[in-house]
């Protein structure tokens, strides 16, 4: 399920359009991950406040979204481009890769909520494919 | 037995009472067929599903989307025993339609995305959690009679 030229264009177009809302998108997606899938809170036991809207969720949501936006720039070589981030997730954070699917789902939900006219079915499939490839690249160094 | 909080019950009743079944049904099923094209395997006699535009404009997809959404009504009206309410539907999907249960989750995800677009900011994390819990119970009930 690799990315066609059409997919890459759709991904670049939508993320260009929504980049100015990076903090809102990232923090909403993270907030929903923590709230709707409470098992994900186990990765953030060191945070004081895990509720939607907390400063830590906002800050980290932006970090995550910046990562996604940088992946868009690296769309032609995700495995190579995301090597360092993969090492971070594999050796330091040790996030179970099953969780990548969860945050991806919530990114799709938030994009749909905030940009209903732009998040058409065709854009949805391209973004879903892209996020799946990003997750694969992030999982690269796990074992 | 599934325990529902007052908030969850109200949220589900609210979402479905305000929903335009024609629109949401068509959009969810069409989105599923576009985003997860292998689901088209169940709709061989639906005619033209060759591209997104064809799927979005296909009247059989629209009609069937409506059927599926009205099927969800059964669960909305029987929240305290969805498992029993869905026994026949489960047998239908397993024995007659031969639908791989993984597909229920795919359609459920598309329905979530469509409802999110409809509700916008009103689709808060709390509402999303209630909605996804409801869909999870529906999906589990639909899988019950598979063997």
UniProtKB/TrEMBL annotation, chain A:
Keyword tags: Heme, Iron, Metal-binding, Oxygen transport, Transport
Keyword match Iron: yes
Pfam family, one: Globin
Gene Ontology biological-process annotations: hydrogen peroxide catabolic process
Coiled coil, from the record: none
InterPro entries per the UniProt record, alphabetical: Globin, Globin-like_sf, Globin/Proto, Hemoglobin_a-typ, Hemoglobin_oxygen_transport, Hemoglobin_pi
MF GO annotations: haptoglobin binding; heme binding; iron ion binding; organic acid binding; oxygen binding; oxygen carrier activity; peroxidase activity
Cross-referenced SUPFAM superfamilies: Globin-like (SSF46458)
Organism the protein comes from: Cyprinus carpio (Common carp)
Family note: Belongs to the globin family.
Name of the featured protein: Hemoglobin subunit alpha-1-like
GO cellular component terms listed in the entry, alphabetical order: blood microparticle; haptoglobin-hemoglobin complex; hemoglobin complex
Automatic annotation (TrEMBL), chain B:
Family annotation (SUPFAM superfamilies): Globin-like
BP GO terms, sorted: hydrogen peroxide catabolic process
Family: Belongs to the globin family.
Name of this protein: Globin domain-containing protein
Entry annotated with the keyword Cell inner membrane: no
Domain Globin: 3-147
Record's keyword terms, sorted: Heme, Iron, Metal-binding, Oxygen transport, Transport
InterPro entries with a match to the protein in the record: Globin, Globin-like_sf, Globin/Proto, Hemoglobin_b, Hemoglobin_oxygen_transport
Gene Ontology CC: blood microparticle; haptoglobin-hemoglobin complex; hemoglobin complex
Gene3D superfamilies for the chain: Globins (1.10.490.10)
Any one Gene Ontology molecular-function term assigned to this protein's record: metal ion binding
UniProt xrefs under Pfam families: Globin (PF00042)
